[in-house]
């Protein structure tokens, strides 16, 4: 299983939900736009906590978080 996770920084509205819920994976940059924690192991996170990553996608109020599972986008 290969997971790909990314954030569309152009639409992030800085709600902080992802940062609060999953700080191992998400953090704010200097402008309070969400970004991935640089050393986060997304494949390991996906294997151990798929539900949390899917919840992050679904709970983002801006639809800014994207997750692909073996090339297929997980629907928000
Ligand atoms: S939950 Fe979405 S809108 Fe809120 S900080 Fe994270 S990426 Fe940005």
TrEMBL record:
Keywords: 3Fe-4S, Electron transport, Iron, Iron-sulfur, Metal-binding, Transport
Pfam families xrefs: Fer4_15
UniProt cofactor(s): [3Fe-4S] cluster
Protein name: Ferredoxin
Organism: Sporichthya brevicatena
């Amino acid at each position: 299983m290969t997971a790909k996770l990314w954030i569309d920084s152009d639409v992030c509205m800085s709600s902080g939900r992802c940062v609060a819920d999953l700080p191992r994976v998400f953090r704010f940059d200097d402008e309070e736009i969400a970004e991935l924690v640089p050393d986060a192991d997304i494949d390991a996170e996906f294997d151990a906590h798929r539900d949390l990553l899917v919840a992050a996608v679904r709970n983002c109020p801006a639809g800014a978080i994207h997750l692909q599972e073996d090339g297929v986008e997980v629907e928000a």
